[in-house]
Design a protein that fits this description.
Arc Repressor Mutant, subunit A; 191 residues; mainly alpha; 2 domains; Tetracycline Repressor, domain 2
Length: 191
């Protein structure tokens, strides 16, 4: 019996090492170019262990990019502050205390992988849409959610993937000030 906790602890360390290596390589190389052999090498394990723990590259990718956006409760935010709150939150998701790089690697991979694109849609549909549903009339929800996605994804692509210099140069306060009004309109403004 004493071996069980040691094996469990080792198993957890191995799983964590694989996930960390996968997140790093998916972020650096994208889904298509990152190989299970490279991930295993970075985690300092045998490639067969990746399959043992995650079943497949797709399974590993799904787990490595599982992401809780920790979205704010918009019913607790003053209506006039919703746009700024969302922009600030997403900047924090990408580069602040909530960031681990997985969302950016997932977004990068979505351009060439149906699995990654589907994962983005699942995150959006499972987290962002329900958050918006608390403050947006049901008949307007699909359109407003789609518009919010254009702002969120557009900022992420230009700042973190394409690294467009003027967008990269803006600090958090500038992004909130300049993009907040657009997000505000998309969520609760007149369309």
């Amino acid at each position: 019996m004493p071996d069980r906790p040691a094996k469990t602890a080792k198993s957890q360390r191995t799983r964590a090492a694989i996930l960390k290596a996968a997140q790093e390589l998916f972020a650096e190389q994208g889904y298509e170019r990152a190989t299970l052999r490279d991930i295993a090498a970075r985690a300092a394990i045998d490639p067969a262990m990746v399959i043992r723990y995650f079943g497949s590259k797709e399974g590993l990718f799904a787990r490595a990019t599982a992401f809780d956006l920790k979205l704010p409760d918009l019913t607790a935010v003053p209506t006039d502050d919703i746009g700024a709150t969302l922009v600030a939150h997403f900047v924090d998701v990408w580069e602040g205390s909530l960031s681990n790089g997985s969302l950016i690697s997932l977004l990068r991979a979505a351009a060439s992988s149906d699995d990654a694109a589907n994962a983005i849609r699942m995150i959006f549909g499972g987290q962002v849409v329900p958050m918006l549903a608390r403050v947006v009339p049901p008949m307007e929800l699909p359109m407003r959610a789609g518009l919010v996605a254009t702002q969120i994804m557009g900022l992420a692509v230009t700042r973190y993937i394409l690294k467009v210099p003027p967008v990269v140069a803006m600090d958090r306060a500038q992004l909130v000030k300049l993009l907040g009004p657009t997000m505000q309109r998309y969520v609760v403004g007149k369309l």
